[in-house]
Amino acid sequence: MNFTRLKIPDVILCEPKLYKDNRGYFTEFYRQDKLEEFLGHSINFCQENESKSCHGVLRGLHYQLAPYAQTKLVRVVHGSILDVAVDMRKDSATFGQHVAVELSAENKKLLLIPKGFAHGFVVLTKFAFVAYKLDGYYKPEFERGIAHDDPSLGINWGIKPEQVKLSSKDNGLPPFEAAEYFEPSNDMYE
User: Fold this and answer.
1) Is residue 3 included in any domain, yes or no?
2) What is residue 185's predicted lDDT score, i.e. its pLDDT?
3) Is residue 186 part of a domain?
4) What is the DSSP string of 138-163?
5) Which pLDDT belongs to residue 35?
6) How many Å apart are CA 27 and CA 2, to the nearest integer?
């Protein structure tokens, strides 16, 4: 597994090594020991989610406040998405900035999004299956979100705005400047 820090260094692109032959391929999508060695701290995933969405479906941008913030490890099982992480950490040098990475079943890339980031994705293919591990349980009372189309974020979602399909919940999310920002707790990585 190769790990690369992106323009926001706490967001990590994970690229598994593929072992191919005439039968197909084999790869390890997740090795806790290798990831922890790279990160320099432990991580314990406790929940795994999967979604199926059609072209243009945009899920996000979502996050949870401390002490129930979540690290996510996202991958695509089928299809292709543009995966986006926005830094919501109030005291961060990259506060309000984002990274966007195309994840697909073909490129096999994963994105590690740490606590304190809003996360969302849009489906670029006819449909996509997205799976992600979480290191904290979903707590609806701590869930927050920001508008995907806030001009201050400057996110290019890779599709025309009229193609975007949102849930009613995501359609009513506040702009970045009105959001509750993330303030880490002292025990985030214990």
Assistant:
1) no
2) 61
3) no
4) --GGGEEE--TT-TTT----SS-GGG
5) 94
6) 12
